[in-house]
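Why run this: before we spend reagent on co-expression, it is cheaper to look at a predicted model of the complex and decide which construct boundaries make sense. The entries below are exactly what would go into the expression plan.
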Amino acid sequence: MLRGVGDLLRHGLLFKYVVASLFRVSWGFGLAAILAIPLGLTIGWFRRAEMAINPLVQVFRPISPLAWIPLAILWFGVGDSASVFLIFLGCFFPLLLTAINAVRNIPAVYINAGRNFGLGPADLVYRVLYPAVIPQLLIGLRITLGVAWLVVVAAEMIAVDSGLGFLIVDARNAGNRYDLVVGGMVVIGLIGLLLDTAMRSLEKVKSFRWAYSED
Amino acid sequence: MNSLSEPKKWEKVLWPLLASALLLAVWHYSVVWTQTRVFPGPLQVEKGMVELFHKNVLWRDIGSSLSRVAIGFGAAALLGIPLGLSLGWYPAANQVVNPVMQILRPISPIAWIPVAIIFFGVGNYAAVFLIFLGAFFPIVVACVSGVSNVPSVFRRAGRNFGLAPAQVLARVVFPAALPQIIVGLRLALGIAWLVVVAAEMVAVDSGLGYLVIDSRNSGKRYDLVVAAMLMIGVIGLALDLVFRRLETIKSVRWGFRDES
Amino acid sequence: MSSGGAATPAVGIKLRVEHLSMVFTRDGKSTPVLQDINLEVSPGEFVCLVGPSGCGKSTLLNIVGGFLSPTSGTVRIDGEIVHGPDPRRIFVFQERGVFPWLTVEGNIGFGLSKLSQPERKQRIAYYVKLVGLEGFEQAYPSELSGGMKQRLEVARALAVNPDMLYLDEPFGALDSITRLVMRGELLRIWEAERKTIVFVTHDIDEAVQLADRVVVLSARPAAIQGVVNIDIPHPRAISSSRYLELRDGIFQQIGLASKV
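The model came back. Tokens follow.
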């Protein structure tokens, strides 16, 4: 098995595939984060908005991104955009919910203190809301990144022609190279672990540490 | 939190309804205006669903998906809970097993598909195996952290009353960890539901996931595709709600202070 | 060495602590916490351990209770060396020691599994009455106030009929009015059941109000600074001159001025 992976490495293929997978994850995850977090924070702030949106999100959330594949292919064709779309979907709803819950869980004392000190709305957001939600957001981001990594592999198995997921499918189809299949899986696992560890170290940064103090 | 007044109870129904109506309207009109021939509007989807119900296809597929989830999830729980409890109880064992789990865990069940097909061939067993994998790790992790998070006061009290270690585990640690275990089970069920749909798209020929793929492949019936997707969403939500109901049982409710 | 007040004359020594020392080592650093503690408690006596926060009195109680092993020295109860926790000496913990997944009845009956059903029911009913929780038998701890939870814990402890009770700042989480009430309750129960009690607190008033003898511990590493006999019979008048005299004496021993 190691030899098979070594082969791939030499042909530069492994590297290319890893980059392809990571590339798609970054785009899908990044887009989802940029859209979902501000949106979620806003929705969480206004009780009625949350009441309106929450049931809808709850219906969409259990729909696996993979179930969107036919629609994704219909709208984007087979290729990179489709898989980025799928990753985006897989990340958007969890991040939205995380942001909503993070805002709703801010202890009222913080907001009241902010108001007490005469903070206007913009200041309130920047100096109270944002720091208060960061710890929860970080945890949500880490978990969702893991989800993104799962989805990219699946999306690649079905919809594109490069990347680690594709490697696994292709290795099996074109020649029953099970050594590569297992090798691919190991690489997937390791990278997933790496991403997770990297996010965890973010949580350790001192200025975020305060919320994780109870251990 | 916001500056408006406290929302009244009936508003809990009003706003989602308004939002859904808005969504449906947007959907309907975007289909009409873009004059797309392929993508269905809400009415076509509804007609498609009725059609599926009449042909009995939908019930059969729902049944297949649910039964696979039941078996895979059930097996994951039966194996995972004892394992998780033991690993939480013996931190030494956990130190050995944990690294292995941390590497296996991020590997999507989907990536296991080839392995599953090698061992089980295409069919039900492969799908159940994948569901098992998807649910197993979250359950074990939840049990381990549930056990380690039991406050030491409880364990001490158990020992103080003369309980043997096994009894402490059964009568004190397990009930104390139960809320976290149930949350883990709920999350694992959610994952199982995602996996079953995915597995059905690749490895079997029945079930909701298969319905999604098949409706497109054999006839570009996108109305059925969307209908199936909606069923997936609704059933997934229903499963989640069932578990949340469990969380309100009195002897467990103490562990959930804030339900949002 | 025998106590004053309404206590019966000592017949032998119940608890004997000899040359007890405790050193905590962590990451290579050793912190001495207890220094050569010698203590004798007679049966039926109510002894309070008082000292500044963090001085090690809880550690001392934990060692006596069998949850920690001392670095040197021995703890004997009725002549036997203490090896571990034992239902004959029940610990009442600082807070949240009651099991949240059991009702009031469930908690009180926790240590009674070896009894027959009718006996068990009888005991539970008796102790529910003794601590004043009638009407709440089926309630869960989350429905009880702080004071009631503490009473529940005392009831649970008493139900197994221990020889000794160890209380580690049990009223610390309660408001001061409830604290006063609870002290009265504890004394009432003590006089009804006559257990030997070792009570840890940082509240000097509490110690003088409750104990037959007050053992004053110095700051860490804790050594016994002094033992004060409280020779006022119960019920004690909090403003009596003897009370104030004894109390101020202890304040001085700890090195605190009695003026703010």
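The longest strand of chain C covers residues 29-41. Residues 1-10 of chain C have pLDDT under 50 and may be disordered. Bring this page to Monday's planning discussion.
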